[in-house]
Amino acid sequence: MGLSKHDEFALRDNRIARYAKALAHPARVAILRFLIHKRSCVCGDIVDELPLSQSTVSQHLKELKTAGLIQGDIDGAKVCYCIDHKEWAAAKKFLGEFMDGFRSEDLECCTPVGKSIAIKR
Amino acid sequence: MGLSKHDEFALRDNRIARYAKALAHPARVAILRFLIHKRSCVCGDIVDELPLSQSTVSQHLKELKTAGLIQGDIDGAKVCYCIDHKEWAAAKKFLGEFMDGFRSEDLECCTPVGKSIAIKR
DNA sequence: GATGATGATCGTAAAAATACGATAGCAAGG
DNA sequence: CCTTGCTATCGTATTTTTACGATCATCATC
Q1: Which of A39, A59, B24, B40 pairs as cysteine with A21 (C-beta 3.0–4.6 A)?
Q2: Which chain B residues are closer than 8 Å to A29 by Cβ?
C-alpha cells in the first residue's frame, strides 16, 4: 500500500497531474515566477531570493526539469535555467482546457442553489 | 528538516500551489473530470469509476474539499459532491494568470537560440 | 428498533516529498 | 597547479502523501 497507482489512470490525466505537481509547491511557483520575469536565470541568484538552502533549491529545479517546464544550460561555471516554452505552452493548454471544462452556467447539482449545507457528520 | 516552509512564501504563490496540489494526482483529476461532466456526483459512483478503494477515494475527495475546489452536500443517505464554482473560478484565474505570465515572444535567455544544450555534468 | 447501504474516519504501512549539511565535480582566475 | 566560486549529488531525517482494510456513524427502509 502507498504505492501510487499512476499507471491505472488516463495518460491525459497523468499529464495534467504532472504539470500541476510541478506547481504544487510555493517554492517552485516562486522559482518559475523568477524565471518568467527573468531577473536572472542563474541558480545562485534564485537561492538568494528564497528562504531555502542551495541544495534544496537545486532539488526543486530538478523537479521542474523533470516535469519539463524548465531547461538548464551550462554557461561556464554557472548554469542558466529558463522556461521551456514548448512544454510551458503544452502545460498551459492542458491545464487551461481542463479548467475550462467546467462552466458554471450549466450548474445544476443535486442540491438546489441555496440549500447547500456544509458537510459535517 | 523536511518541514515544508510554506509560511515563508508569498500568499499568492501559496494559493497557486494549493490549487495545483489539488490537481497533482491523476485520481483527483479524474474525480474532477467526472464531476464536471456530472455523470453523477455521488461518492459511490466515483468509486466505481476508479481503480481505488472507497476509503482512498474518500480521502481524495477530502483533499479536494480542503483545496476548496469541491463541495459536499448530504442528500439523504448519500453525499452529493459538486464543483465549487466560485473557488473553481478563482483557481482558473490564479493558475491562468500565472501561466500567462510567460510569453515566449520575449524569450531571450542566457544561451542564444540553438545553442541550448542538455545539461549533464 | 433491526437491517442494509453509504460514506467518513481510524489505524497502519509504504512510498514520496521536503529540507539540510557535507561533499564532489567543474570552470575560471590567480 | 591551487584556490575559489558555482552547482549537482549523496546521505539522512522528518513530514506528507498514497493506499487499504476495518470500523463507525448516519440515513432509509423494513
Answers
A1: B24
A2: 9, 13, 16-17, 20, 98
**Residue ranges making up the domain that contains A21:** 9-106
- Asked whether residue A4 is domain-assigned, the answer is no
Q: Which of A17, A41, A92 sits opposite B29 (nearest CB)?
A: A17
Q: How far apart are CA A83 and CA A36, in angstroms?
A: 7
pLDDT at A51: 95
Q: Is the pLDDT of residue A7 over 80?
A: yes
Any idea what the CATH number is for the domain that residue B57 is in?
A: 1.10.10.10
Helix (H) / strand (E) containing B75: strand B70-75
Q: Does A10 touch chain B (CB under 8 A)?
A: yes
The domain total for chain A is 1
- The predicted-structure confidence for B69-89, as pLDDT tens digits, reads as follows 999 988 888 899 999 999 999
